[in-house]
Amino acid sequence: MSDRKAKLRETMEADHAACLTIFRRVAPEQWVQPVPSDDGAEWKARDVLAHVAVSEAGQLGQITRLLEGGVTVPDDFDLNRFNRRAVQKYAAASEADLLSMLERDYAKVLSALEAVPEAGLDKTGRHARGDTLTVAQFFHRITEHRRQHAEQLARVLGL
User: Fold this and answer.
1) What is the spatial distance between Cα 54 and Cα 15, in angstroms, rounded to a whole number?
2) Total tally of structural domains belonging to the chain
3) Fewer beta carbons within 10 Å, N or C terminal of the chain?
4) Tell me, what CATH number does 49's domain have?
5) 15-45 tens-digit pLDDT
6) For residue 46, which of 9, 11, 90 has the smallest C-alpha distance?
């Protein structure tokens, strides 16, 4: 593994461990507390967990399509609509199921990082947020996104 990939993996592993520590500290009654969302939707703490869990696979899909020479997201992609729908779709999932999903998809993200050729890290494409990123930046965005949401939960819930 190249030095660049090793550093990225190290950051991802540290962020993942820190996020899981936060998510596991949330008490059952805290999962229903209201928290801010990216698009102003009325979310509960568990909705943030669902959002984060779904985003792992979604962002990995963008990376995969980019590396295969495809379109990462359609031109008319509405990230806020996608996020609201994903949270609705997983409304009945338990927190344990969402954490398991997050762990599973995180492992897939790490495997994908290992499989990317060094030159592939510099390939660019449009992220769901609308900005253009390199594949390396896509991987960084995944871990940064999860960490920001976990830290926000910790602040709001007083963890």
Assistant:
1) 17
2) 1
3) N
4) 1.20.120.450
5) 999 999 999 999 999 999 998 776 667 889 9
6) 90
